[in-house]
Known about the structure:
The chain is α/β, with parallel strands linked by helices. 35% of the residues lie in helices and 22% in strands. The model has no long low-confidence stretch (mean pLDDT 97).
Amino acid sequence: xxxxxxxxxxxxxxxxxxxxxxxxxxxxxxxxxxxxxxxxxxxxxxxxxxxxxxxxxxxxxxxxxxxxxxxxxxxxxxxxxxxxxxxxxxxxxxxxxxxxxxxxxxxxxxxxxxxxxxxxxxxxxxxxxxxxxxxxxxxxxxxxxxxxxxxxxxxxxxxxxxxxxxxxxxxxxxxxxxxxxxxxxxxxxxxxxxxxxxxxxxxxxxxxxxxxxxxxxxxxxxxxxxxxxxxxxxxxxxxxxxxxxxxxxxxxxxxxxxxxxxxxxxxxxxxxxxxxxxxxxxxxxxxxxxxxxxxxxxxxxxxxxxxxxxxxxxxxxxxxxxxxxxxxxxxxxxxxxxxxxxxxxxxxxxxxxxxxxxxxxxxxx
Length: 365
C-alpha cells in the first residue's frame, strides 16, 4: 500500500458490496478501512473476509476512523440520497454511489450542489462502460468505423424469481428499489446514451408478469435520438429459469456491432474487424459484475493522486437518471411519447415511504 492511499469505508454489505471490497483490496493506492451493515452477521462476514473492522453503526465507524476520506454508499437505492447527504454534510466525505446513483434527477442535482458546497466529490458507478466490448464499440463509433449509426437495440433477459424479491422488504418497491429497469437495466439505459448520444423521446410499456411485486419486471420501449437514428429496449427479469443475456447491438452504415453475454461482456459480432471479437470479450461466469469496479477505484485514486477528472461527470450521470425516469413517465402516460429533455420526473419511482426508509436508517445513539 502506498503512503497516500485513499481510505474507503463500505456502507451496506449486500452482494455487490463484496465486489466493491474485493475491488478496493486489489487496487494499489486504495485501502479498505472498514465495513458497516445494520445486520451484524453481514457486516461481520465481510469484516472477517477482508480483515477489517466491522460495524452496525456507520456514525461510530466514521468517528473511530477519521482517516477515511471516501465512503461507498451501497444501501438500498431509495436510501442513496439520504445517506449520501449525511456523508457530505455531516462527515465531509467523498462518496461512491452505486447504481442507480439516485432515483430522481432532482436528487442528483441536490446531492451535487451540496457536494460542491462542502468541497467533496461524488463518484457514480456505471461499471459496464469499462467492459472491453463496450470500450471497443465506443471507439468504433467515435472514429466513424461503424459509419452512421442507424439502430441501437438493448435486450436483457434475466431471471429474478419471487424468492429474490422476498429476500428483503425494499426489493420490488417503487420507494426503495424500482423494477427491472432501475435495478437491473440501469446500465443498459446508460449505454443507450454512452454509445448513442442523447435520447430525444421514448415510448414505453411496463408489465409485472413473473412475480408478485408492485414494480415492473418487464419493459419494452421505442426510442428516438436527436438525429435520424432510432432504438429499442427490452428488459425483463421474468425470464425463467435462468439469466440468458444482456445484449446491445448497433447497426451502422458501415457495419454491425453486437455486444452480448450475461452482462454486455462479449463482443459477438463486429463486422469491420471480426478478429476484434475474441480480444474484446471477457469471461464473466465467475462474477457477473466483471472488472469495471476495479477501474472505478483506479479512477478514484487517479482523481486524488494525479488530479485526473473522474470520467462520469455530473451532467453525464444526470442525463442517465433523467432518461431512466422518462421510461417510467411514458408508462405512466399509457405508453405515450415523452420528451426526455423536458425535466419531468416519474410519480412512482423513488416515492416516499417512511415505513420502508426507517428499516434502513441507523438510529442516532
